[in-house]
Design brief:
single chain, alpha/beta, Arc Repressor Mutant, subunit A, D-Maltodextrin-Binding Protein, domain 2, five-stranded mixed β-sheet, four-stranded mixed β-sheet, 36% helix
């Protein structure tokens, strides 16, 4: 299957327009139409309805495969580029919002001097994104390193999306707490069982503390969503929790000074990992060494 044809199909499906897809891809509209026709001929079935422009049942099935296929192709290209001599440029780091602060505040590995700081090299460029986007940026070479965080059982690795030959290394773990609104009846307890809060309203913050990943880690089906926050700012998330719009589970270092109670059961921790592809000697490899526990 020609990846150029597949990319054209994905773009037309996403935009719902041959002309808009042509503008984004830098082709003429007739060239895009020919690419779709060639792909349909190759697969022996109609993939797109024309009025309106929308995927058929077969096209929707192909879309389920197209994203991972194109990502793996981009990851392969980036991996080959990393193996070749690369020009000197600033280190590019993609991080989930809670991962970088936790990584820099964690104590250094035992094999390094206690005073060795966890600092970024001069000129490093940092961007924040959701976990899936961080993995994609590292896989495709848009970022040299990724710092990701999530909830896991102690010493268990994070469940990360598959995106080519990437390595994930533990950076640190810390306890989790539940941020509560002022006056909440459970405030002041020494610890909480997550099962006791299964029917409570929880803030869904996909960029910071996503409910689906928490349910998966805790092996629970409850945790009803309250308000949804699509930003990256932890202070805003805590303000929503303090105002009673939902509970939120956070690492202790990020929970601020508001009312929080430690998570006692199930045994879960906030885990941070550094994710990378093949690394030649240089700033990226040195930073991984300084971060790795």
């Amino acid at each position: 299957m020609d990846p150029h044809l597949l990319r054209a199909f994905v773009t037309v499906s996403r935009l719902g327009s041959f002309s808009a897809a042509a503008g984004e891809l830098g082709y003429t509209q007739s060239a895009v139409s020919q690419q779709i026709a060639a792909l349909e001929a190759d697969l022996g079935t109609r993939l797109l309805g024309r009025r309106p422009v929308a995927p058929t049942a077969a096209g929707r099935r192909l879309l389920e495969h197209a994203g991972p296929l194109l990502l793996r192709l981009a990851a392969a290209r980036a991996d080959v580029a990393r193996a070749a001599a690369a020009p000197v440029r600033p280190l590019r780091i993609a991080a989930t919002p809670l991962a970088l602060p936790a990584a820099l505040q964690a104590p250094p590995p035992a094999r390094l001097p206690a005073a060795a700081p966890r600092v970024l090299p001069p000129g490093a460029r940092v961007s924040t994104a959701a976990l899936e986007q961080v993995i994609e940026r590292v896989a495709t070479g848009e970022a040299d390193l990724g710092l990701v965080d999530g909830v896991a059982a102690p010493s268990d690795p994070l469940a990360l999306p598959q995106a080519g030959p990437l390595t994930a290394v533990r950076v640190g773990e810390e306890p989790l707490v539940v941020a509560l609104p002022a006056g909440h009846p459970l405030a002041g307890r020494a610890g909480l069982d997550l099962a006791d809060l299964a029917d409570a309203r929880w803030l869904d913050a996909p960029q910071i503390s996503a409910l689906p990943r928490l349910r998966l880690a805790a092996r629970m089906d409850g945790l009803r969503p309250g308000a949804r926050y699509d930003g990256h700012d932890v202070r805003t998330l805590l303000a929503l929790a303090a105002a009673g719009h939902g509970l939120v589970l956070l690492p202790r270092s990020a929970a601020g000074d508001g009312p929080v109670v430690a998570l006692a059961r199930p045994r879960l921790v906030h885990r941070v990992e550094v994710v990378h592809g093949a690394l030649p000697p240089g700033p990226a490899a040195a930073l991984v060494t300084s971060l790795s526990v």
